[in-house]
Amino acid sequence: MKRPVSASFRPLRALRTALPIVGWLALSSAALAGGGGGGGGQLGGAPPPAPVPSTPAPTVALPHTVEKLPNGMTVIYHPDHTVPTVVVNVSYSVGSRNEVAGRTGFAHLFEHLMFMGTKRAPTKMFDAWMEAAGGWNNAWTSEDRTDYFDVGPPSALPLLLWLEADRMRDIGPLMTQEKLDAQRDVVKNERRQSYENRPYGKADLRLSELLYPPGHPYHHPVIGSHDDLTAAQVEDVKAFFAQWYDPANASLVV
């Protein structure tokens, strides 16, 4: 609501009163800065303060060893004995930027499908065996990468490596319609919960298309659209796995 101007505040009257005061202050400042002799001259000619020497930014040393396996996978070893924990991180160089038109959200959908089990580690056993050994896991997808990480005690390292190697080999060929339908619904609900039903969540969905022009690989959100998720087929999953989930397109950090 706009507040009316009261009798105690008239803009023109206030301006007429303020102008002489401003002029007096300006003259006083000039006298202090440029006055000759005495303290006034010293004040105007005072040297600027000496610059504070800059300190180089601290660096973090991360000793590591890099090895290239015969199958093309890059392996990075980083020893850290500060805590009795081992971490296995498998990163695939594929994200939403690699998706084709009509299949947005597919990289993230495939991240979910990687937990749907194989012949040797059936559905739900991936988590169950890891938790029984004192470990846990998670994953995330971005525009450029899909990362899977496992954490546990040092004694669990052989199991963590075996589980990752097993699903890298067999998840795609063993995909079924039932598995796809289950995770498709999970991803759709994630979109609803994280974006559609959250304050300002829809702004996040629009952000990528406003920042990047049509045709740019970052133009669509990582989560994809409901229509494209619905259109995904089992054969799409198998083709995506064959193209991107290869040891030569992955790096392993231990």
List keywords for this structure.
alpha+beta; 254 residues; Cytochrome Bc1 Complex, Chain A, domain 1; six-stranded mixed beta sheet; 13% strand; disordered N terminus
Gross morphology is globular
Rg: 31 Å
**How widely separated are the two ends?**
62 Å
Structural class: alpha+beta
For the record, what CATH class applies?
Answer: Alpha Beta
Helical residue percent?
Answer: 40-55%
- Tally of discrete structural domains: 1
Residue stretches low in confidence (pLDDT < 50, at least 5 long) are: 1-42
Beta-sheet strand percentage?
5-15%
The strand order across the widest sheet is 1-2-6-3-5-4
Query: What's the mean pLDDT score?
Result: 86
The CATH superfamily appears as Metalloenzyme, LuxS/M16 peptidase-like
Say what the CATH topology is.
Cytochrome Bc1 Complex, Chain A, domain 1
The name of the CATH architecture is 2-Layer Sandwich
Describe the structure concisely.
The longest helix has 24 residues, at 11-34. The chain has helices at 11-34, 38-44, 106-113, 125-132, 157-170, 177-196, 201-211, 226-231, 234-244, and strands spanning 65-68, 74-77, 86-92, 136-141, 146-152, 250-253. Helix content is 43%, strand content 13%.
Structural overview:
The protein is of the alpha+beta class and 254 residues long. It has one domain: Cytochrome Bc1 Complex, Chain A, domain 1 (2-Layer Sandwich). Helix content is 43%, strand content 13%. It has 9 helices and 6 strands. It has helices at 11-34, 38-44, 106-113, 125-132, 157-170, 177-196, 201-211, 226-231, 234-244, and strands spanning 65-68, 74-77, 86-92, 136-141, 146-152, 250-253. A 6-stranded mixed sheet has the order 1-2-6-3-5-4, with helices on one face. Helix 1 crosses helix 2. The model is unreliable at 1-42 (pLDDT under 50).
